[in-house]
Specification:
- The protein is an alpha+beta fold.
- It folds into 3 domains: 59 residues, Beta Barrel (OB fold (Dihydrolipoamide Acetyltransferase, E2P)), CATH 2.40.50.140; 80 residues, 5' to 3' exonuclease, C-terminal subdomain (DNA polymerase, domain 1), CATH 1.10.150; 46 residues, Helicase, Ruva Protein, domain 3 (Orthogonal Bundle), CATH 1.10.8.
- The chain is built from 10 helices and 5 strands.
- The protein has a 5-stranded mixed barrel.
- The longest helix has 14 residues.
- The radius of gyration is 16 Å and the shape is globular.
Length: 206
């Protein structure tokens, strides 16, 4: 098991990064929140989890132990796999998700890509008692709330989702793509372009 990787960020993709350590480039699938914490050429410590399937072995990366712990909790819920888990972490920070779950805020949770009302209810039911075991800095709640809210109400993101839907993509598919590629300062055109790249390479079937 690879607990974490220390190295240099050599590449940043739409939903992955490559970290070089001793001449080996590790490709890690990550959330957009993790990507937003990194820069090319930066020396980083990325927490990781190996995902083993019958036809594939991959690594997921996390900028903090808190994000990794939240990912583990989310993917322990029935019908939430690796891709949806990372999508949820792209939608909101670990602290914000902690607050949603603790307060049984299924309305907010259900807005995450790949999460409907029933899945949101299942997340709260299965994780409400477990999230208290995660070390959360209560002082960060207000700042993170402002960050998350500003992202969620971005006109550029809403316009990008509408543009993708007008091209024939489903609302769920459009939302997931936008939440994965969004970065501060991106205009609608840039978000749509990156979202299309993400959709084209994504193996998820909606």
């Amino acid at each position: 098991m690879i607990g974490y990787i220390k190295g240099i960020v050599e590449d940043v993709g739409i939903d992955f990064i490559i970290v070089e350590n001793n001449g080996v480039g590790f490709k890690l699938n990550v959330s957009s929140n993790t990507i937003s914490q990194l820069s090319l050429g930066e020396e980083v410590k990325i927490y990781s989890k190996m995902i083993v399937r019958e036809d594939d072995i991959s690594l997921c990366g996390f900028y903090s132990e808190q994000e990794q712990e939240m990912f583990n909790l989310l993917t322990s819920v029935s019908k939430i796999g690796t891709k949806v888990g990372l999508s949820i972490l792209s939608f909101a920070t670990p602290n914000q998700l902690y607050k949603y779950i603790r307060n049984a805020d299924t309305a907010s949770l259900s807005k995450a890509p790949g999460v409907g009302k029933k899945t949101a209810e299942r997340i709260v039911l299965e994780l409400k008692d477990k999230v208290n075991k995660i070390a959360i800095d209560e002082d960060d709640f207000e700042n993170e709330q402002n960050i998350v809210d500003s992202k969620q109400v971005s006109n550029s993101e809403e316009e990008a989702i509408e543009a993708l839907m007008s091209l024939g993509y489903s609302k769920q598919e459009s939302q997931e793509a936008v939440y994965f590629v969004k970065q501060p300062g991106m205009e609608t055109e840039d978000i749509v372009k990156k979202s299309l790249e993400y959709i084209m390479k994504s193996s998820i079937k909606f």
